Structure to design on (632 residues):
């Protein structure tokens, strides 16, 4: 369980996260959505431990983040971000092995090799193992990075506690096929007991896969709750400044969002203001 | 995984044998040729077997040739490992100590001591003694490297263009300072600065070889501790952080270790460029970008290559000698240009090369 208590973060004196309190429990696939600049990625970086916290508390299984060692944290919390650019030729299996770095001092053991192989198999990149990462396509790279993150938290922690997988816009550079494959995998990992939190841009993907959705706007949580029930046209309109409707999806129980060409706000321009009436 | 201990150790053995061969070959040639059987005889004398002879040739071998060959090996190792470390830190394969200002900064610090050293007085000068030169070289190299790193590293990403420009500016500044000292220096000092700016191993003796040996071995041993973390840094600073690496601390330590090794070597042999660029590049093409491999193998290959370069420097204009820094520049600059062209091409293809 990840608990966040009145979190405030900023950059260069400008507040970005303005008091977020929430809980992420295991067994659920949590998705964070919100417009550009709402602080989604900063929020994820902050509770991952890679963004300075101004005030507030973050607890992993009741333990404050500040007292957990970096290596100790890395043994049970993996993060996958958007794009990875490397300047050196390196084999795919060496990249995946980096996920095991928090678990050994200098050289990996047979156990680590075994885990990497299984993680690559799970993501369908085992046959790429000896390829140079730089020669892969964007989608292949993304799958390799997912395999690396999975290898990092493959073992159930000896000391107890949950495992955490954070995905920062994991599907934004993938085609439709892999988007659905990725999110289905993320959801199944959540179902297996890992705390999975993803930042997504696409509301329809969020609606289709999330167990719980958090709507962020201007550094605050506007709404959070079980999906798809929490999502209403009014909420979408309020958070994103668009006119939206929910339609029944013939493929399942969860609705899809469609948008009007007419934006909710008056006049021209890209500034989004807080409009409360449809 | 493919790159395991066993497949690395084949390379270590090969390079190790290559190093021994290069040391022997290099010890043989020079102003005076010493045949292999006598080299082995003298070496046996030196480690305490048999009666040491008193021939001039043996004196020459033990007091001049042997320290020079060893100094050359340690310097080559230090420069090559420094190249590997800097490339990992800047996350860019075109970086090396000559480019990011470490060498010229160290040269500036050393030139300062050359010219102004006589006018220092006080208890701290006596205490520093023989370490005054490496100390100032370290300070100069450290400031220069830090400056280039800060200028080129914008929001955790190293911009190649800024890096090159910052390198040029800092190198020019340091070279200007060194030039100023050679201008105000009295004649013999000035000549030694100029000669030394081109790199020379002719000043080798057992005491400066010892200093470079200690700093190089210590530097390599320390940097191996950070090899795994440097691998993670390939993914980017934030990603490395997610893998448990304390990136700020790592960067500080690597800069320190690197500057330490390069500055000590530079204070003795002068500026020798491009070894740090070429060696890790060859090894990456041959085998792997894994820093655990790269650091050890760079040390070995750097020692080998610089030994052959020094041998060439002693042979081509014998009995005089050629500045070794000129040789390494002639051999290394084309490799640098090739990497630069490839970098530019990748940028055109839309890839982010920094």
């Amino acid at each position: 369980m990840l608990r966040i208590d009145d979190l405030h973060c900023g950059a260069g004196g400008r507040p970005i996260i303005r008091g977020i309190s929430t809980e992420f429990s295991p067994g659920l696939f949590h998705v964070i959505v919100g417009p550009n600049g709402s602080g989604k990625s900063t929020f994820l970086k902050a509770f991952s431990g890679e963004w300075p916290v101004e005030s507030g508390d973050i607890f992993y299984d009741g333990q404050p983040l500040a007292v957990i060692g970096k290596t100790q944290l890395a043994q049970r919390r993996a993060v996958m971000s958007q794009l990875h650019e490397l300047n050196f030729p390196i084999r795919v299996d060496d990249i995946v092995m980096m996920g095991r770095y928090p678990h050994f001092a200098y050289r990996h053991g047979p156990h680590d090799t075994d885990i990497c192989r299984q993680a690559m198999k799970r993501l369908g990149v085992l046959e790429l193992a000896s390829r140079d990462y730089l020669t892969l396509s964007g989608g292949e790279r993304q799958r390799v990075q997912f395999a690396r993150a999975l290898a990092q938290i493959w073992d159930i922690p000896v000391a107890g506690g949950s495992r955490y997988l954070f995905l920062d816009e994991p599907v934004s550079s993938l085609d439709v096929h892999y988007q659905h494959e990725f999110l289905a995998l993320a959801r199944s990992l959540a179902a297996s007991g890992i705390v999975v939190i993803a930042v997504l841009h696409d509301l329809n993907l969020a609606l289709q896969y999330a167990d719980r959705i958090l709507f962020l706007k201007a550094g605050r949580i506007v709404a959070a709750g079980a999906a798809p029930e929490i999502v209403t046209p009014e909420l979408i309109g309020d958070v994103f400044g668009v006119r939206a409707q929910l339609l029944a999806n013939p493929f399942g129980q969860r609705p899809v969002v469609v948008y009007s060409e007419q934006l909710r706000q008056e006049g021209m321009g890209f500034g989004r203001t807080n409009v409360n009436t449809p | 995984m493919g790159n395991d201990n066993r497949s690395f150790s084949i390379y270590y053995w090969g390079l190790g044998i290559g190093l021994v061969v290069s040391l022997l070959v290099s010890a043989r040639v020079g102003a005076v040729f010493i045949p292999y059987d006598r080299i082995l005889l003298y070496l046996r004398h030196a480690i305490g077997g048999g009666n040491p002879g008193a021939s001039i040739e043996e004196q020459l071998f033990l007091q001049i040739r042997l320290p020079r060959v060893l100094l050359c090996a340690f310097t080559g190792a230090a420069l090559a490992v420094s190249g590997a470390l800097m490339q990992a830190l800047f996350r860019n394969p075109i970086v090396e100590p000559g480019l990011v200002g470490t060498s010229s900064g160290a040269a500036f610090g050393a030139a300062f001591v050359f010219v102004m050293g006589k006018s220092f007085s006080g208890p701290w000068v006596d205490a520093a003694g023989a370490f005054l030169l490496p100390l100032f070289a370290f300070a100069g190299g450290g400031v220069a490297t830090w400056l280039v790193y800060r200028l080129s590293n914008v929001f955790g990403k190293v911009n190649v263009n800024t890096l090159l420009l910052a390198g040029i500016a800092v190198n020019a500044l340091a070279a200007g300072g060194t030039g100023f000292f050679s201008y105000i220096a009295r004649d013999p000092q000035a000549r030694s600065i100029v000669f030394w700016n081109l790199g020379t191993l002719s000043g080798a003796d057992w005491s400066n070889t010892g200093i470079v040996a200690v700093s190089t071995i210590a530097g390599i041993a320390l940097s191996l501790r950070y090899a795994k973390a440097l691998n993670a840094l390939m993914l980017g600073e934030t990603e490395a952080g997610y893998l448990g690496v304390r990136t700020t601390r790592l960067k500080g330590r690597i800069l320190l270790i690197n500057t330490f090794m390069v500055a000590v070597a530079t204070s003795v042999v002068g500026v020798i460029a491009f070894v740090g660029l070429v060696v890790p590049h060859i090894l990456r093409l041959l085998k792997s970008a894994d820093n655990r491999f790269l650091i050890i193998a760079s040390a070995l290959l750097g020692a080998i290559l610089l030994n052959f370069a020094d041998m060439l420097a002693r042979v081509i204009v014998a009995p005089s000698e050629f500045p070794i820094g000129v040789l390494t520049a002639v051999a290394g600059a084309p490799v640098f240009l090739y990497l630069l062209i490839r970098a530019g091409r990748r940028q055109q293809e839309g890839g982010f090369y920094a």
